[in-house]
Amino acid sequence: MTERSFEELVAEAEAASVDGWDFSWLNGRATEERPSWGYARSMAERLATAKAALDIQTGGGEVLATAPKFPPLMVATESWPPNIAKATQLLHPLSVAVVADSVEPPLPFADNAFDLVVSRHPVKAWWREIARVLRPNGTYFAQHVGPSSVFEIVEFFLGPQPEARKKRTPEEAKTEAEEAGLEVVNLKLETLRTEFYDVGAVIYFLRKVIWMVPGFTVERYRTKLLEMHHLIQAKGPFVAHTTRFLIEARKPQ
């Protein structure tokens, strides 16, 4: 099989749609270990027994849509217009209301509105808002991106990021949740191996996860991308490490 050129890989990755939160374009081009706790399965178990639930920052609704059973009231929020459209198309047939909402507070819901709030990879958890919309004895169940996640990629393009490496820790989330009046009942962190098999996979990833390298474009980082292309050709997959933490917090009765 003929090895594909840098320009071919770049053109293919730039043409790919990055709407929604489905990463299937990377199948065969990148791999990522999954956390042992199985977020989607655990989320579905909790949704099956809830009465009113909220999924914050649902993306394109792909993860939420995997649940086989929803509570009588199921709502999802999203802020990015392409994702709002995709989530609406996917979730409305499942009787899930999709609400366009900023990632900034406040959440557009009344106090004590939900007995379950879930989220997978929120940009930021606004703990006081989460506590406000939870009913007494309600639960927040989420998988967050952990500290210095995939920073081998970030620092390849941006150089050392010592201060950024200190952010997004489970301990920080626990402190903020408790300050908002929640009781953290479960907290787990895992570091997971991620491999990128060609530079096109890296371009797609950075186009989709836009906060990793802010302002990323192929033209802006062409020299570094070409360097990475040669590195992968010479040494094999570019290896990075993803961090994820599971957090479950309860609002006191």
Proportion of strand residues: 15-25%
The CATH class, by name, is Alpha Beta
Distance between the termini: 63 Å
Corresponding CATH superfamily: Vaccinia Virus protein VP39
Element order: H for helix, E for strand: HEHEEHEEHEHHEHHE
**Whole-number average pLDDT?**
96
Task: Tell me the strand order in the biggest sheet.
Answer: 1-7-8-6-5-2-3-4
Sheet bearing the most strands, described? 8 strands, mixed
**Pairing-aware structural class of the strands and helices?**
alpha/beta
Unreliable runs, pLDDT <50, ≥5 residues?
none
Question: Domains counted in the coordinates: how many?
Answer: 1
**Assigned CATH architecture:** 3-Layer(aba) Sandwich
Radius of gyration: 19 Å
What is the count of DSSP helices, taking H or I runs of 4+ residues? 8
Protein name: Methyltransferase type 11 domain-containing protein
Organism: Bifiguratus adelaidae
Domain Methyltransferase type: 54-141
GO molecular function: S-adenosylmethionine-dependent methyltransferase activity
Question: Would you mind describing this structure in some detail?
Answer:
By secondary structure, the protein is an alpha/beta fold. It has a single domain, classed as 3-Layer(aba) Sandwich (Rossmann fold), CATH 3.40.50.150. Helices cover 31% and strands 25% of the residues. The protein has eight helices and eight strands. It has an eight-stranded mixed β-sheet with strand order 1-7-8-6-5-2-3-4, sandwiched between helices. It starts with 5 loop residues before the first helix and ends with a strand. It comes from Bifiguratus adelaidae.
